[in-house]
């Protein structure tokens, strides 16, 4: 216990929880610039939460603060405070006054739940002095007068999710678009009447809306493949615009205005499509002039295809235009010219990290979900994309990576196009994949994003037999495979009957035929095989699912349950020590780092320096992060790498580098 506390105290004295990830990766739902200072930006990542920038997107920082729930829908900058913003999510409205370091719930909105749809804007702060209007996923509409804390429901027989609220430029009208529903509604808060359907509104679902603040104060809406529409300032009398250079079927998804008054410009965009207008009547198609930053986002080595835009935001300057899409964030600082977009994701690492492994030279290999396999040799300051080599059949969700004797490398994924389980083999030190393995035959799987319980969830080497490796495939029909040639070819083995493992799987480092697997409900516990999976026996019965396993030299096997209970045997499962509570309410990862053990889950990491008999808390992250998914301790650099589900890779200093 004393040793564990000493290590925890040492970490507290260092700079703990430093981001160590590449940029981009997750679906970015929205991007917004502050109306009073367009150096200040906010963005929402699907899994990771909230990001902010104070240098026009040159660098980003996570701004989750103490948010209890990270399921954000949109962020609206507070027009009265350059450091303030409002967050709409599944757990109501939240407010920050310190750039996201702390968030407080907005009174009266605890039961509000907002639709998490790319590009949604379900919260509006009106320019009439601060009236708030909020539209929920249940189709409810609420208003709050300036200076009041009371929210008033608006009578409106609607059950469809509110997708977007936009203020019309005159007469105090608010436009309402519903998710996946045609048409628009016009709402005038001052009249104390419910919304009415807009006359001659576009008969298609609205993807984005924009109000022009210059005469004649037109409104604009884009409707995906159904083009660009314009309406009068009242929200009625809509007409479709004919735009030269836009082909049938091309989708328009986002709108934005840069600048103000006579200097303002209007923009509309879709996938590989950008339009600009100086008057709202004539629109010019610009060349898709997007440039990627391979140093910040090394996956651009194999994927430079334009992704689907989710949001477009303009700044105070007519030159400043910001774009969010499914994979990244971009900025243009010359929108008055050719609107050249530069990828802007430094610090915005929003990937799903599924697995981590060290090679013989100390480099870290990462299975990064849709980002593929990457490697870093400098503690996360820079990354190299290892695989895929190009955008094509090898794209998918990479769920497992392992490095064995001779730096043999094995990576496993679910193919994006066919749902096939794919295992690749190569050399970690040389950052090389030689090809796809043979013999892995399982039913195709439905693609899932990130840490889904389907796919090749664990790959391990058995060091006692060079070339021996095992791959566990989880899912509705779990399977086990064995390779004798470092992953080139595989043969099917058996799993215990009725056991459905996740990624709790380990191989004895001294006996290549000795395997352990942990089961989830309803068959919970630990099973052991002494003949490479031909026969199994249950060696530990539990009443909760096993989240992770580790096999150590000397016959030690460790099991971590999903509720944070740690079990240890020093006799290869014959006798088990008394269980110990790690203090984790939710556990998912376990790793060894001589002489310590580390367990992680939820938003926390625990350490033990006495073989798991007692556990101490490491300092928590600087803000609330998504679920911890993977751990890897590197004694040579004195770092513990922590993978998350949607906020990329982090590292904690756990001691001085080895000499």
Structure description:
This protein has 659 residues and is mainly beta. It has 2 domains: 22-343, 7 Propeller (Methylamine Dehydrogenase, Chain H), CATH 2.130.10.10; 351-653, YVTN repeat-like/Quinoprotein amine dehydrogenase (Methylamine Dehydrogenase, Chain H). Helices cover 2% and strands 40% of the residues. A 5-stranded mixed beta sheet has the order 26-30-29-28-27, with no helix packed on it.
CATH architecture of the largest domain: 7 Propeller
Number of domains: 2
Look at the structure and name the CATH superfamily of the largest domain.
Answer: YVTN repeat-like/Quinoprotein amine dehydrogenase
Estimated structural class: mainly beta
What is the terminal-to-terminal distance? Answer: 26 Å
CATH class identity of the largest domain: Mainly Beta
CATH topology of the largest domain: Methylamine Dehydrogenase, Chain H
Taking all Cα atoms into account, the compactness measure Rg is: 27 Å
């Amino acid at each position: 216990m004393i040793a564990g506390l000493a290590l925890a105290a040492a970490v507290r004295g260092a700079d703990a929880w430093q981001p160590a990830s590449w940029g981009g990766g997750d679906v970015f739902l929205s991007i917004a610039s502050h109306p009073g200072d367009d150096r200040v930006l906010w963005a929402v990542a699907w899994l990771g939460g909230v990001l902010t920038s104070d240098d026009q997107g040159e660098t980003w920082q996570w701004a989750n603060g103490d948010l209890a729930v990270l399921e954000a829908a949109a962020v609206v900058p507070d027009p009265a405070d350059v450091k303030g913003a409002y967050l709409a999510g599944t757990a109501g409205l939240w407010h920050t006054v310190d750039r996201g370091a702390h968030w407080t719930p907005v009174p009266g909105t605890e039961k509000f739940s907002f639709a998490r749809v790319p590009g949604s804007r379900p919260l509006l702060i009106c320019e009439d002095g601060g009236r708030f209007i909020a539209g929920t996923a249940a189709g409810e509409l609420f208003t709050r007068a300036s200076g009041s804390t009371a929210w008033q429901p608006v009578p409106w027989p609607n059950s469809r999710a509110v997708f977007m609220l936009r203020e019309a430029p005159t007469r105090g009208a608010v436009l309402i678009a519903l998710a996946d529903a045609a048409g628009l509604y016009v709402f005038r808060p001052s009249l104390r009447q419910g919304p009415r359907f807009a006359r001659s509104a576009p008969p298609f679902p609205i993807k984005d809306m924009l109000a022009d603040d210059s005469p004649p104060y037109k409104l604009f809406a884009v409707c995906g493949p159904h083009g660009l529409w314009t309406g009068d300032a009242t929200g009625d009398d809509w007409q479709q615009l004919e735009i030269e250079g836009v082909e049938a079927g091309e989708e328009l998804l986002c709108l934005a205005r840069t600048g103000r008054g006579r200097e303002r410009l209007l923009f509309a965009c879709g996938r590989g499509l950008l339009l600009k207008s100086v008057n709202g009547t004539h629109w010019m198609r610009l060349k898709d002039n997007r440039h990627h930053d391979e140093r910040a986002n090394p996956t651009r080595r194999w994927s430079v295809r334009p992704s689907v835009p989710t949001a477009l935001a303009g700044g105070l300057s007519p030159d400043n235009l910001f774009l969010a899409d499914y994979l990244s964030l971009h900025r243009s600082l010359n929108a008055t010219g050719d609107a050249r977009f530069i990828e802007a994701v430094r610090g915005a690492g929003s990937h799903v990290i599924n697995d981590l492994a060290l090679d013989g030279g100390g480099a870290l290999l990462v299975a990064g979900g849709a980002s593929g396999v990457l490697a870093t040799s400098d503690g996360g300051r820079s990354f190299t994309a290892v695989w895929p080599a190009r955008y094509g059949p090898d794209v998918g969700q990479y769920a497992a990576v392992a490095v064995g004797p001779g730096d043999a490398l094995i990576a496993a994924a679910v193919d994006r196009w066919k749902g096939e389980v794919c295992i690749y083999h190569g050399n970690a030190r040389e950052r090389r994949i030689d090809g796809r393995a043979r013999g892995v035959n399982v039913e195709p799987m439905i693609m899932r994003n990130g840490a889904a319980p389907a796919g090749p969830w664990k790959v391990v080497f058995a060091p006692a037999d060079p070339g021996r490796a095992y791959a566990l495939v989880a899912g509705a029909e779990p399977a086990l495979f064995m390779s004798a040639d470092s992953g080139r070819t595989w043969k099917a083995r058996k799993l215990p009957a009725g056991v459905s493992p996740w990624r709790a799987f380990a191989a004895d480092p001294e006996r290549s035929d000795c395997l352990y697997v942990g089961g989830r409900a309803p068959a919970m516990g630990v099973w052991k095989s002494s003949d490479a999976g031909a026969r199994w026996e249950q060696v530990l019965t539990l009443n909760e699912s096993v989240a992770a396993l580790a096999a150590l030299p000397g016959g030690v096997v460790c099991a971590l349950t999903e509720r944070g209970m740690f079990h240890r045997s020093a006799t290869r499962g014959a006798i088990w020590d008394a269980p110990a509570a790690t203090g984790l309410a939710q556990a998912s990862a376990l790793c060894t780092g001589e002489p310590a053990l580390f367990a992680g889950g939820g938003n926390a990491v625990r350490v033990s320096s006495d073989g798991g008999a007692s556990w101490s808390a490491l300092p928590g992250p600087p803000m609330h992060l998504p679920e911890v998914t993977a751990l890897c301790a590197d004694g040579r650099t004195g770092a513990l790498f922590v993978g998350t589900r949607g906020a990329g890779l982090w590292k904690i200093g756990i001691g001085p580098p080895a000499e």
